[in-house]
Amino acid sequence: MKVGILGATGYTGIELVRILSKHPNAKISYLSSKHFESQLISEVYPGLQGICDLILEGDDFKKAVATCDIIFSTLPHELTFEIAQMVMDAGKRLIDLGSAFRFDDFNVFKKWYGSNDDIEYDKFNKVYGLTELNREKIKNAQIVGNPGCYPTSVILALAPVLKNRVVSDKNIIIDSKSGVSGAGHEPKFSNLYSECNENTKPYNVAKHRHIPEIGQELSKIMQEEVKIVFTPHLVPMTRGILSTIYCNLGSDITLNEVYDLYQEFYKNDYFIKILNPGKYPSTKSVVGSNYCQIGFEIDEHTNTLIIMSVIDNLVKGASGQAVQNMNLMFGLPENKGLDIIRIFP
Amino acid sequence: MKVGILGATGYTGIELVRILSKHPNAKISYLSSKHFESQLISEVYPGLQGICDLILEGDDFKKAVATCDIIFSTLPHELTFEIAQMVMDAGKRLIDLGSAFRFDDFNVFKKWYGSNDDIEYDKFNKVYGLTELNREKIKNAQIVGNPGCYPTSVILALAPVLKNRVVSDKNIIIDSKSGVSGAGHEPKFSNLYSECNENTKPYNVAKHRHIPEIGQELSKIMQEEVKIVFTPHLVPMTRGILSTIYCNLGSDITLNEVYDLYQEFYKNDYFIKILNPGKYPSTKSVVGSNYCQIGFEIDEHTNTLIIMSVIDNLVKGASGQAVQNMNLMFGLPENKGLDIIRIFP
Amino acid sequence: MKVGILGATGYTGIELVRILSKHPNAKISYLSSKHFESQLISEVYPGLQGICDLILEGDDFKKAVATCDIIFSTLPHELTFEIAQMVMDAGKRLIDLGSAFRFDDFNVFKKWYGSNDDIEYDKFNKVYGLTELNREKIKNAQIVGNPGCYPTSVILALAPVLKNRVVSDKNIIIDSKSGVSGAGHEPKFSNLYSECNENTKPYNVAKHRHIPEIGQELSKIMQEEVKIVFTPHLVPMTRGILSTIYCNLGSDITLNEVYDLYQEFYKNDYFIKILNPGKYPSTKSVVGSNYCQIGFEIDEHTNTLIIMSVIDNLVKGASGQAVQNMNLMFGLPENKGLDIIRIFP
Amino acid sequence: MKVGILGATGYTGIELVRILSKHPNAKISYLSSKHFESQLISEVYPGLQGICDLILEGDDFKKAVATCDIIFSTLPHELTFEIAQMVMDAGKRLIDLGSAFRFDDFNVFKKWYGSNDDIEYDKFNKVYGLTELNREKIKNAQIVGNPGCYPTSVILALAPVLKNRVVSDKNIIIDSKSGVSGAGHEPKFSNLYSECNENTKPYNVAKHRHIPEIGQELSKIMQEEVKIVFTPHLVPMTRGILSTIYCNLGSDITLNEVYDLYQEFYKNDYFIKILNPGKYPSTKSVVGSNYCQIGFEIDEHTNTLIIMSVIDNLVKGASGQAVQNMNLMFGLPENKGLDIIRIFP
User: Fold this and answer.
1) What's the confidence (pLDDT) of residue A59?
2) Were B31 and a residue from B8, C9, C108, C274 both cysteine, which residue would form a disulfide, CB within 3.0 to 4.6 Å?
């Protein structure tokens, strides 16, 4: 199948290139970049020399839609809505790595993203693309709203205990630590090496745009409103997210029972790995791969369940999951072209 | 005054050397090291050449006590109890950077540290050395149990709101991120560069030895038992601790009122900096210095107060606070020899 | 084919596991580890859970040889000589990632490695495993001495200009920068995170054991004795080697002509990428992959050719090249199982 | 004395603030910043809160000159020439951390910096500010051209052997490795964390603007034209420069004799530390301090002297040396306010 990547030189864009270049069923046919238009992608990223030497095109989205079977977009939502319409009209497929199609209620989107878009949101045949939870719907979706990196790490970690109602829906505390690539490929002061290196810092505390996305999905899983506190942090590494999540245990349950519950919940999920009781995940165990590892601990003095999950923010948290969804949409095995082992050390 | 440092080649030891070498009232007179005995400290750490060229001595603690006015110990508790007795007998002073003298109840110490020591703990004239909270007692103490790095960052952050009872004592969630120097100068697999670099990982979840220390001090501040959940993490940087703390607000209070409360609480404390509402601390703002910076946010949906504090784990979290205490014990201005600005970038 | 890895938990060992786990023609059948004997490899390295869950065996080399078609050894030379004999006797194949089989003259090996081994070195049917230069011989070798990481980066960079005699054989200056994983998976002070992080340092200046290996191979290429100066450095990153090499240009030659010469020399080599004139390589362009990138510049004021090459020290500099050699030895396409794109960012 | 810093928010600017804030004889009176005009410097850099809370002013250089005894400029040369004229007219002093006043021959400056300035360069009473070599001239200079970071590390390393003519003036190879802060506080792609982290790369090979500066000063020392090859590299750390320098030994000389020669040459220089034969410098031994450490090795096979020097690029390589020069200009001890020990680890 022919794929196009709109916004191919950002970090999620080139990660798509890395994965799709070796995908046995995909052929990259169209790449666009605003910053680097008309250069070879292998000039911008010399590591791609001889692997992907396409010319980066500009904004000719019509051509992209016309020549590709599936489009991956990493562009701002204004543009994505345009592209989505073209894709719908042409009967093609779209996976949006931005935030445009992650929401059930357009007003929530508009409020948190400061959008003035005036569109008929519900006309789009779209699905929230957290593969493990929405697998069947994704298969037939025309448009997939690929989840945010933090939401992926959080929702996968919480789904089993919320679904089984072993924790309270009140005051779920989520403390996430992300590598700096999560802040994007943007030349601004706060992304500079010398500012980020040897530095750990919280940001957008209780205000991050992933909050409504996490809340929406958790509430659907539990079938009542789930309230979360979410604090993202930047830590000095390039890739990886660790989410440490604190919940009140509503019932008497042992660590082994929690383990069994997760094992059962994810028994058919290739990319989810549950760690044995007493083991905790580290980001380095998944970097470069599409895996999510989940571990837990119980603090008995306070009856708190501590869930820890790790993903590579650019793979399972973005481009890897997007390809996982593409595989589903085209009837391929979910791990096709994604069966990559983490880099260690 | 003449100072001795027992265990001078660990990270807190050489940090004491860094600070005390330039302290106008101190003269380093005795350094010991088990690993590097009889070498020059400036051979082990060439950056000290011409600055401190003393020979590292072995275990002659008697000589140390005899020739020094004050001893800093970074040794294991078994040895520290021995040294403490010598110090008491000789009428000298001791600041212990280990855990031996941080507890009110010896049984708590024995339980958490797996100690079989059979000593008369209460005979020691000792004080918990969190300077800002115990200033008066420290002045006259013979033995100071210098606080742990995590407890320093946590207790300073929580004292104002616990003292003023604006938060609940239930389920205080503490999520701390530490640089790797906190794991000590020990050649083991988990401390290797290639394991720690590009890696974020939780450890000792709900089991870390700093839990009883934090609990003890917070409970004294609030005058009732405070229950905490504590998860430490290692992040890939050398120095710095960020503690992100989540508490239930017990009362209606605005962000500005919280700010005022902290400003008032720490108005006479040279090394505590309260950040304006809306600003959050980053570890890099204090690295190399004895400052603690504190910021906060309120999550209104859940009525949660999020407190964030940063220190340099080797300075305010260890050797800097030790020198701050030494200054107090010898009637010097608290910031003498400690008035060092952070390194940035 | 069945493969065994002796010393599977060091960095080159687990890199072999990473690559071979997904190799379509290989089946990992035997893993050994002295440190972690009888644990699952996926317990030691949780990132391998569900990917490779073999038990780490001890020193039963006989069993390894008996059950495998090819053995990869990362063990010390004393042990490797033993294993090599077993392999010879059993008519199997061996790829040694240590230094035991890299030399033509056993006395050179003994001198530089302080070895007292008393063996008949020449009886071994062995080849120096720099794939691009010794391809034909490797196909039929029973034992391959896999090159060192620095020599790989240096010899590939220099072969074209030495072979074509465009540079002088005198005073070739080689200044190499390596990531810390090159120092191995050994718990010693100099490998600790806090010592290596934010630090660049030369080591073994003019004394490194890779000097005779480089000298031997370059001299064979040029058919006269080549004299080199070699300074290795550790830089604070996990993976990657950059070698910056300075040679006196013996003849009038332009940058474009140098480029053409390299292109011609490596025209059939899948993993060697020559950069356009004016472009210089960076280690990040190859990390995680088996590629070597080479760029150059001419300093006209001094008539100096500056050659810069980058590899991933654990892939092309060790385990990747070993698998490349295995492919050759078993009649497979050279890039089978190795067609991995670098991780970026 | 009252000091002004023009361009106070770049990395050399805030390093001046760090040092001068605690200088016993200096009072920071004027700070300017184009980007952050009219903000408090402690808002831009929260680590300065309570330490330096001045408002950042704009381009009112007249006011700066009028109110200060000495001006430090980190601005582009066009502006610096303007300011220099004002300083001359007002009888004040200027230390320029840019490149405007580092050259003897204005044409060399114009050629390498692409400048079209049409000024009377020789009217300025200026000195090249490498303190150890030009101490007497600096005392009375009105304008000091503070050296570049690479030149400082290189010239200090080579001066003793060039002065004493123990090495050849031909083909001196200089391979320098710098932390990323050397690339400045500028938001561009190549300075982003995710591009620089885990990456080592050469840049401006044989073309860097520090080449003529190094050549000029070395030639003066040797009193004949010295030809150098210079390759700068960026390594993933914030601070520090290591220069590894290769020279042909012109005469028979032992390592111990080289050591004695350096010791003698720098016997009165507080900030220069010569390492014992067999010891090599590492950047971490000087980070945060104004020291320069120098070590060496002889490669006997090629008769090559390898000199290695380390400095902190922002201290001895920029702001520290600037303050050292200021001390000289005002009759103060050279190490006043600069007696800072490196941060380790």
Assistant:
1) 82
2) B8
Give residue-wise pLDDT tens across range D181-202.
999 999 999 999 999 999 999 9
Mean pLDDT of chain D: 96
Amino acid present at C297: E
Give me the pLDDT at residue C118, please: 85
Only one residue has tokens 């090979």, namely D205
Look at A46 and C281 and tell me if their CB atoms are within 8 Å.
yes
Q: Which residue of C has its CA nearest to A289?
A: C47
Residues whose CB is less than 8 angstroms from the CB of residue D190 and which lie 6 or more positions away in sequence, other chains included: D183, D196
Contact yes or no for C344 and A22 at CB 8 A? no
Can you list the positions of beta strands (E) in A48-128?
70-73, 93-96, 126-128
Beta strands in C235-303 (DSSP E): 241-248, 272-274, 292-299
Please state, in angstroms and rounded to a whole number, the distance separating the CA atoms of residues C222 and C230.
Answer: 18
Cite the residue boundaries of each domain of chain D with CATH code 3.30.360.10.
Answer: 150-313
Residue C115, pLDDT score? 87
C290: its two tokens: 């088996």
d(CA A317, CA A311): 7
Look up residue D326 and give its two tokens: 């200021």
Tokens of A233: 């942090």
Q: Provide the 8-state DSSP code for C121.
A: G
Options B149, B196, B247, B292, the catalytic residue: B149
> DSSP 3-state assignment of A225?
coil
CATH topology of domain C150-313: Dihydrodipicolinate Reductase; domain 2 (3.30.360)
- pLDDT tens-digit series, residues C124-165: 999 999 999 999 999 999 999 999 999 999 999 999 999 999
Q: What was the pLDDT predicted at D210?
A: 97
- Three-state SS for B139? helix
pLDDT for residue B108: 96
User: Could you give the residue range(s) of every CATH 3.40.50.720 domain in chain D?
Assistant: 2-124
Using an 8 Å Cβ cutoff, are A232 and A213 in contact?
Answer: no
pLDDT band for position C171 (50/70/90)?
confident
pLDDT at B102: 98
| Interface membership of B196 toward C (CB under 8 Å) | yes
Share of chain B above pLDDT 90, in %: 95
Q: pLDDT at position D117, please? A: 80
Helix (H) or strand (E) holding B246: strand B241-248
Report yes or no: C338 and C19 within 8 Å, Cβ to Cβ: yes
User: What is each CA distance from A311 to A99, A285, A290, in whole angstroms?
Assistant: 19, 9, 7
Strand intervals (E) in chain C: 2-6, 27-32, 70-73, 93-96, 126-128, 143-145, 172-178, 201-202, 228-234, 241-248, 272-274, 292-299, 304-311
Strand order in the sheet with C2-6: C27-32, C2-6, C70-73, C93-96, C143-145, C126-128
Alpha carbon D272 to its chain's center: 14
B342 Cβ under 8 Å from any chain A Cβ: no
Strands (DSSP E) along A77-137, which ranges? 93-96, 126-128
DSSP A261-307: HHHHHTTT-TTEEEPPTT----GGGTTTSS-EEEEEEEETTTTEEEE
Amino acid occupying residue A199: N
Neighbours of chain D (3+ CB pairs under 8 A): A, B, C
Neighbours of A21 (CB within 10 A): 16
Partner D contacted by B220 (CB < 8 A): no
Considering only the C-alpha atoms of chain C, give the largest distance between any 2 of them, rounded to a whole number of Å: 62
* CATH architecture for segment(s) A2-124: 3-Layer(aba) Sandwich (3.40)
Contacting residues for C225 by C-beta, under 8 A, at least 6 apart: C169, C215, C219
- Residue D140: what residue type? N
The catalytic residue positions of D are 149
CB contact under 8 A, C187 and B185: no
